[in-house]
Structure to design on (363 residues):
C-alpha cells in the first residue's frame, strides 16, 4: 500500500535524466521525503546526484551541512579556516569540548561522514579568499548550489562574486542579535534580481556581527533551517524563491519578504545589464562594439 | 507635503522629495549612518544608485534595514 503510493507519486514527478533508481535501503531511509509529491523517487535521486558547497562552518554551516547530509544530498564541500572555540559550542551543535582547537570544516566533515555514510563530504580547511577559491571553482557548473554561511561582510562579497561569475545559485543566510536575513539569487534564472552587491554594496557600513553584539543559538538555527529548505527547493527545481530577501525579527517573530532589484550600475553583475542594453539598442552605430 | 510610511511610522515629507533627501533626514533624526541603510519601497528594494532619482509618492511604504553579516 505504502509502496504503491510512493511509486505513484514518484512517477508523477519529472524524472531527471541520468539519475539512478534508489536502493531499497535508501528508499526506506528517505521514505518521508520520497512520500512528498514534490520530491518522489526522482527528487531524491536529484539530491543524491547534487553537489553543494558550504562557505563557513559556524552556526549556520553546522546545521545546514547536517540537514543537507541527512536529507541525502550526495556531495557536500565544507569550507572554513577557523578552529573550534569554546564560545562556539552553544550554537554550533556538531562540535563538543573535545573538538576545541580542531579546524571546523575538518571536525564537521568527520562527524557527518560517520553519521551519514550515503553522502560524500569533503573538508577544505582554509578561509575562502581570492587565492584559495581557485582550485575549488575550476570546473564549470561544478556545484548546484552555493551556500553562504560565512560570518563577515567581506567573505559574503567574495561568495557573491563567485556565484555571479560562475552562474551558481546562491543561497545566503545571516544572523546576528535578533535579526536574520535570507536571500536567493540566480543570475541565469532571474537576472532582474541582480546580486548580493546590488542589495548590499561593498562600501556599505556593517554594524552587526555575532562577535560584537551576540546571538542566541536558535536564532541562527532558524535561519539555517530556512536556508537548508531553500537549497533543497532549488535542487528540486522550485525557483519561485529566487530574487527574494526574507528578513526575520527574532523578538517580534515576524518575517518580511522583499523583492531584490538589480542595480544597473552594479560593479559585480552590471556587465549582463550592459549586455542587455547592447542587445536592445540594436541598430545603433555601436551595436557591434560589444560582443561578449 | 505628502504622507509616507517609514518602518510603519507615518511621516510627512515634501511633495517630490527624493529618496536620498528623505533618507538623509531620517538618518540624522535617528542617529543612523546613511551608509548603513538599505531600503525597500513598497516591498521592492531600491538600489542605492537609484535613490537620488527616485521621488517618494504619497502613501509609499519605506522599509529601512541594515545588512546582517553574522553566521
Ligand atoms: Zn549586482
Amino acid at each position: 500500500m505504502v509502496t504503491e503510493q510512493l511509486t505513484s507519486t514518484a512517477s508523477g514527478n519529472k524524472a531527471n535524466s541520468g539519475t539512478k533508481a534508489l536502493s531499497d535501503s535508501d528508499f526506506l531511509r528517505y521514505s518521508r521525503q520520497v512520500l512528498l509529491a514534490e520530491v518522489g523517487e526522482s527528487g531524491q535521486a536529484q539530491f543524491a546526484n547534487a553537489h553543494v558547497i558550504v562557505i563557513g562552518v559556524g552556526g549556520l554551516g553546522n546545521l545546514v551541512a547536517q540537514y543537507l547530509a541527512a536529507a541525502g544530498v550526495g556531495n557536500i564541500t565544507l569550507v572554513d579556516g577557523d578552529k573550534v572555540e569554546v564560545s562556539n559550542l552553544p550554537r554550533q551543535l556538531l562540535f563538543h569540548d573535545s573538538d576545541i582547537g580542531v579546524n571546523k570544516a575538518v571536525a564537521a566533515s568527520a562527524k557527518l561522514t560517520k553519521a551519514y555514510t550515503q553522502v560524500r563530504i569533503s573538508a577544505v580547511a582554509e578561509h575562502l579568499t581570492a587565492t584559495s577559491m581557485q582550485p575549488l571553482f575550476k570546473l564549470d557548473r561544478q556545484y548546484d548550489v552555493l551556500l553562504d554561511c560565512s560570518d563577515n561582510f567581506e567573505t559574503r562579497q567574495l561568495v557573491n562574486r563567485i556565484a555571479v561569475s560562475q552562474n551558481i545559485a546562491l543561497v545566503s543566510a545571516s544572523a546576528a542579535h535578533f535579526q536574520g536575513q535570507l536571500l536567493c539569487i540566480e543570475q541565469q534564472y532571474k537576472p532582474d534580481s541582480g546580486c548580493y552587491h546590488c542589495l548590499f554594496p561593498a562600501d556599505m557600513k556593517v554594524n552587526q556581527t555575532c562577535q560584537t553584539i551576540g546571538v542566541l543559538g536558535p536564532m541562527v538555527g532558524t535561519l539555517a533551517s530556512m536556508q537548508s529548505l531553500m537549497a533543497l527547493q532549488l535542487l528540486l527545481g522550485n525557483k519561485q524563491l529566487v530574487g527574494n530577501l526574507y528578513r526575520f525579527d527574532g523578538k517580534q517573530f515576524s518575517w518580511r519578504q522583499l523583492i531584490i532589484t538589480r542595480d544597473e550600475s552594479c560593479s559585480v553583475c552590471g556587465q549582463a545589464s550592459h549586455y542587455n542594453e547592447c542587445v536592445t539598442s540594436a541598430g545603433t552605430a555601436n551595436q557591434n562594439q560589444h560582443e561578449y | 507635503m505628502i504622507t509616507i510610511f517609514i518602518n510603519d511610522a507615518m511621516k510627512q515629507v515634501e511633495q517630490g522629495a527624493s529618496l536620498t533627501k528623505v533618507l538623509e533626514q531620517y538618518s540624522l533624526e535617528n542617529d543612523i549612518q546613511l551608509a548603513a541603510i538599505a531600503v525597500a519601497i513598497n516591498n521592492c528594494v531600491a538600489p542605492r544608485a537609484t535613490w537620488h532619482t527616485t521621488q517618494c509618492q504619497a502613501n509609499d511604504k519605506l522599509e529601512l534595514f541594515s545588512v546582517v553579516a553574522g553566521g
User: Anything to note?
Assistant: The radius of gyration of chain A is 20 Å. Chain A has one domain: 50-285. Chain A touches chain B through 49 residues (CB under 8 Å). Residues 259 and 282 of chain A are 30 Å apart (CA to CA).
